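WARN retry 2 of 3 for item q-0093 after timeout on previous attempt; input resubmitted unchanged.
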Amino acid sequence: EEEDDEDDVPTSALASRVKRKDTLAMKLNSRPSAPENEDQSAVPWQSREQWEAVRAQIGTALIRRLSQRPTLEELEQRNILQPKNEADRQAEKREIKRRLTRKLSQRPTVAELQERKILRFHEYVEVTNAHDYDRRADKPWTKLTPADKAAIRKELNEFKSSEMEVHEDSRIYTRFHRP
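OK item q-0093 returned
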């Protein structure tokens, strides 16, 4: 009787929307009972040997899959998996900083580069005004028709096969374009 009394109570619009959207309750209500569920999940095996064979087959597939997974070291090297803890990360950062500082301290100075005539500065620098213009390049290859492209490929193939000098032993490695 108490359940019937609860149904007679008018519900607000918000409460009815919440009740409608309560998907968990809907899924739990539509779930089969325990005996029905056991009947559906039971797989009819012909024999114990067949069950063992299927189980072994699944086991080998899982082992193969697990063996293909990268190791922890590989994941850490590829920066997918971070080092174990913050202390390790800080130590790694310090080591990188130390190495980079050492490399920068061993770099030659500008004076040394000038002495070795690797770097040279002119004393006089000329500056002129230039007018603004469109610096984008013309791209004629975007305007080629398929027939034009085929003709270019044909000409390249003819050049490679007859005019281009190639050592006899290397001729087999010459790449020709599709016609």
